[in-house]
């Protein structure tokens, strides 16, 4: 029993509040079960939000990068994902799509801001702002959310077959704010990369 518990702890990764400066999550192979779960400090419904993360990958297929969802099994309220050279941002059932270029051998800093009243989305890749769009004005993102990095799109109800390739690469510097548009601060007040509560599952390790 003790060994089983220990084994489970190793498989599931650990749960902690840690300073992750200079560290990356390495999603080292495609796997249905791989994901990192972060616990954002959301205490009331989100009016305005910004999330930034840095992503490095050489194989873009159908990759969920970041989503907010009420629990392990619910559909995401907010979802940022990539299919080949398009980024998708969804809030509930509504979505916007951005075309990018394929390029590898380079980190991408991706930031998304969303305003509750107007629904205006600001989307930046490496500091370049895409044309602004409007997404689901007035939708409330409730406070009981988990933030999930890198899980299969099938788990969000997008595509259904098991064994679908999932994100392979690195993700670091995830920060989130309850403000929009992005303020160019380094660390978020809802997710702060210096003080992160996280759990890893599947083929992911945290590496300094
Ligand atoms: C979470 O946010 C609330 C309100 O902004 C703040 O008072 C609290 O200290 C924060 N908790 C943590 C663990 O960061
Ligand atoms: C949300 O963002 C808009 C645009 O920046 C701002 O006018 C509004 O006051 C913000 N609302 C809250 C509750 O922060
Ligand atoms: C999510 O799933 C993990 C195991 O896969 C479990 O340990 C955790 O308690 C679950 N969290 C919620 C909120 O259901």
Helix and strand topology:
Blueprint: H1 2-12, E1 16-18, E2 24-27, E3 35-38, E4 49-56, E5 62-69, E6 78-83, E7 86-91, E8 94-99, E9 108-114, E10 120-125, E11 128-129, E12 133-134, E13 146-149, E14 169-177, E15 196-201, E16 204-207
Subunit structure: Homopentamer. Pentaxin (or pentraxin) have a discoid arrangement of 5 non-covalently bound subunits.
Signal peptide: 1-16
Subcellular location: Secreted
Q: How would you sum up this structure, described in words?
A:
The chain is built from 1 helix and 16 strands. With 208 residues, it is mainly beta. The chain has one domain (15-207): Jelly Rolls (Sandwich). Strand 7 and strand 8 (94-99) form a beta hairpin. The longest helix has 11 residues, at 2-12. Residues 1-13 have low confidence and may be disordered. Bound molecules: 2-acetamido-2-deoxy-beta-D-glucopyranose (3 copies). One 2-acetamido-2-deoxy-beta-D-glucopyranose (NAG) binds next to loops. Residues 1-16 form the signal peptide. Homopentamer. Pentaxin (or pentraxin) have a discoid arrangement of 5 non-covalently bound subunits. One of its GO terms (molecular function) is metal ion binding. Keywords: Calcium, Disulfide bond, Metal-binding, Secreted, Signal.
In short:
It is found in: Secreted. The chain is mainly beta and 208 residues long.
**Main beta sheet: strand number and arrangement?**
8 strands, antiparallel
Query: What sequence of helices (H) and strands (E) makes up the elements?
Result: HEEEEEEEEEEEEEEEE
Radius of gyration: 16 Å
Tell me what portion of residues adopts beta-strand conformation. Answer: 35-45%
| CATH top level class name | Mainly Beta
Cofactor: Ca(2+)
Subunit structure: Homopentamer. Pentaxin (or pentraxin) have a discoid arrangement of 5 non-covalently bound subunits.
Keywords: Calcium, Disulfide bond, Metal-binding, Secreted, Signal
Pfam family, one: Pentaxin
């Amino acid at each position: 029993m003790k060994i089983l518990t220990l084994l489970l702890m190793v498989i599931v990764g650990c749960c902690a509040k840690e300073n992750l400066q200079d560290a990356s999550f390495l999603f080292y192979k495609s796997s249905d079960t791989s994901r990192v779960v972060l616990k954002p400090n959301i205490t009331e419904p989100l009016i305005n939000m910004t999330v930034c993360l840095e992503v490095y990958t050489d194989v873009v297929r159908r990759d969920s990068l970041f989503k907010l969802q009420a629990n392990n099994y619910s559909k995401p309220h907010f979802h940022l994902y990539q299919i080949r050279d398009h980024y998708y941002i969804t809030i509930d059932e509504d979505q916007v799509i951005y075309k990018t270029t394929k390029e590898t051998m380079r980190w991408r800093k991706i930031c998304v801001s969303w305003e509750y009243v107007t629904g205006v989305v600001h989307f930046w890749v490496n500091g370049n702002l895409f044309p602004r769009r409007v997404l689901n004005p007035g939708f409330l993102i409730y406070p009981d959310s988990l933030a999930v990095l890198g899980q299969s799109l099938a788990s969000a109800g997008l595509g259904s077959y098991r064994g679908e390739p999932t994100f392979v690469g690195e993700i670091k510097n995830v920060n989130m704010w309850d403000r929009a548009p992005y303020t160019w601060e380094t660390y978020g007040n809802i997710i702060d990369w210096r003080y992160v509560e996280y759990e890893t599952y599947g083929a992911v390790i945290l590496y300094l």
